[in-house]
Amino acid sequence: MEPIQNPTPARPEDVKAALYNENYNRVTTMIQCYVESIGLTKEQTYNPDKKNWLWKNGSASIEVFIQTINFASGTRRDYLRIFSPLLQVPTNNLLGFYRHLLELNDLRLGVKLCIAPNTQTVFATYERDIRGMDYQELTTCIIDLELWADELDDQLKAQFPNWSN
Q1: Are 130 and 22 in contact (CB under 8 A)?
Q2: CA 154 to CA 86: how far, in whole Å?
Q3: The pLDDT value given to residue 51
Q4: pTM of the prediction?
Q5: Integer Cα distance of 45 and 147 in angstroms
């Protein structure tokens, strides 16, 4: 979790890069402050190889990281991403299962349910561009996902048991 070093701005694109790096470092620090506010340490939660934080909230596993998307124009966008695996896609009643997930997407404000590519895992997820994000918003995003994930993982597993496992 070493801060990104800024070059001495000499060109307009260097100034933009410095601002992106500043936002990235600021939000990284805010994530670590949140982790400490719930009684965990960097050593317990942060994986420097993957640049992510992992912890448990009740029965839910929480993963937080910043994803950078670079564009051909030389610009980039950084997104706060929060994930929690909920359950495996069941082998029966798929139409009812998928319909229920779509309905939950409408009811669980701020959190969306998705299936990660090349997996059979349903995730609760939240993502937002980090520009303009403050600590209060970051904590609200994480807390909301923690609460919904802890509720939904048990609820969905009970409602849609995977009889093949």
Answers
A1: no
A2: 8
A3: 95
A4: 0.85
A5: 19
pLDDT > 90 in the chain, percent: 74
Closest C-alpha to 83, from 113, 129, 124: 124
Percentage of the chain beyond pLDDT 70 is 88
Residue 26: is its pLDDT beyond 70?
yes
Structure tokens given for 153: 């993982």
Please answer whether residues 79 and 130 qualify as being in contact, where contact means their C-beta atoms are separated by less than 8 angstroms: yes
Q: β-pairing, 112-115 with 76-88?
A: unpaired
- Give 3-state DSSP helix, strand, coil % of the chain, rounded to 5: 40, 25, 30
Q: Does domain 12-159 have CATH number 3.30.70.920?
A: no
Residue that has been written with the tokens 């609200």 in this structure: 140
What ranges in 53-134 are assigned the alpha helix state H?
Answer: 94-107
φ, ψ of residue 121 in degrees (nearest 5):
-105, 130
List, in order, residues 6 or more apart from 102 with CB less than 8 Å away.
Answer: none
